Amino acid sequence: MRILITGAAGRLGRRLARQLADAHDLQTTDVVVGADVTVDLTDFDACRRLMRECAPEIVLHAAAWTDVDGCALDPQRALSVNGLATAHLAALTSSGGIPILYISSNEVFDGALGQPYSEYDRPNPLNPYGYSKWYGERAITQVNPRHYIVRTAWLFAHGGSNFIQAILAAARAGKALRVVTNEVANPTYANDLASAIAQLIESDRYGIYHLVNEGAVSRWGFARSILDYAGCAETPIERISRHEWQRPSLPPEQTAMANVAGASLGIRLRPWQEALRAFLDAEGAN
Ligand SMILES: NC(=O)c1ccc[n+]([C@@H]2O[C@H](COP(=O)([O-])OP(=O)(O)OC[C@H]3O[C@@H](n4cnc5c(N)ncnc54)[C@H](OP(=O)(O)O)[C@@H]3O)[C@@H](O)[C@H]2O)c1
């Protein structure tokens, strides 16, 4: 299958490209090893040229502005990169009769449900990043019926920066750690998500999916597990509330997601604790 991956230099995009490279013909929009196209997806004409040149049979749209605090400080740019660019790709794939898979986020939910969100619960984003991702979802669902919306959360991947590396680096530098207890979601390993996506795109079962490692945890609980598994069980972590962690974007409180639709197709991700151990093993961190 000829696949166009956007955001192929990002955490998920890099892994997706590796996962799919052996089995498929790949085109990517970021400069990565083996890729040859760089395109600003907010530019409609550039998107149109890209689609013409790549002639994909499916688009995996992983590009986004993922700086949640940056999005809060510049909501217009967030809407342009995460919403408008997605609308461009929705229109171009739809007119070409091509399926599109869009990566969305747990932050489309307000966190007030009191139980894990299924694919059929109603989004109600609280912050500009969440709103821009939801805008992208609606652009796709309203324009291209051949869509997969894949919501995920708290991605960790090899290379680049993420929560795990930040916690380990702070602990090893002897810094005092303060982590939020009342922000809860599903930590998700990019490798597991990429495998799940590879399965999903073979299904032709369009719709909304929650592809996250199973189980949810608070930021504090996640940090505790990271340090315990990495041999830093003695390092203390102060518990704080999300209001004590001053930042431009207030995250939703409880956005645990349940994988109902994917599981019905036999697509399941292992528990986050197993995924975290596998990640740390591969990093040589424990
Ligand atoms: N990271 C998470 O915890 C998380 C959680 C839930 C959902 N998601 C979603 O998962 C997807 C992948 O996230 P990620 O963490 O892999 O993202 P990432 O590492 O930040 O990578 C995003 C990629 O998108 C590219 N990009 C940004 N603006 C662009 C534009 N205008 N045109 C073309 N490319 C552009 C970036 O290129 P530059 O670096 O050159 O800007 C980067 O390569 C995103 O849709 C994100 O919203 C992520």
Please tell me about this protein's structure:
The protein has ten helices and twelve strands. It is of the alpha/beta class and 286 residues long. It has one domain (2-162, 186-215, 255-270): 3-Layer(aba) Sandwich (Rossmann fold). The strands form four sheets. Strands 2-1-3-4-5-10 form a six-stranded parallel β-sheet, with helices on both faces. The longest helix is centred in the first third of the chain and has 22 residues, at 75-96. Bound molecules: NADP nicotinamide-adenine-dinucleotide phosphate. NADP nicotinamide-adenine-dinucleotide phosphate (NAP) binds at residues 6-7, 9-13, 29-30, 39-42, 62-66, 81, 85, 103, 105, 133, 152-155.
SSE order and pairing:
Layout: E1 2-6, H1 11-21, E2 25-28, H2 44-54, E3 58-61, H3 68-73, H4 75-96, E4 100-105, H5 128-143, E5 147-152, E6 155-156, H6 163-172, E7 177-180, E8 184-185, E9 188-189, H7 190-200, E10 207-210, E11 217-218, H8 219-229, E12 237-240, H9 261-264, H10 272-283
Parallel strand pairs: 1-2, 1-3, 3-4, 4-5, 5-10, 6-9, 7-12
Antiparallel strand pairs: 8-11
Helix pairs in contact: 1-7, 2-4, 4-5
NADP nicotinamide-adenine-dinucleotide phosphate binds next to helix 1, helix 4 and strand 4.
List descriptors:
single chain, 286 residues, alpha/beta, Rossmann fold, 6-stranded parallel beta sheet, two-stranded parallel sheet, 10 helices, 40% helix, binds NADP nicotinamide-adenine-dinucleotide phosphate
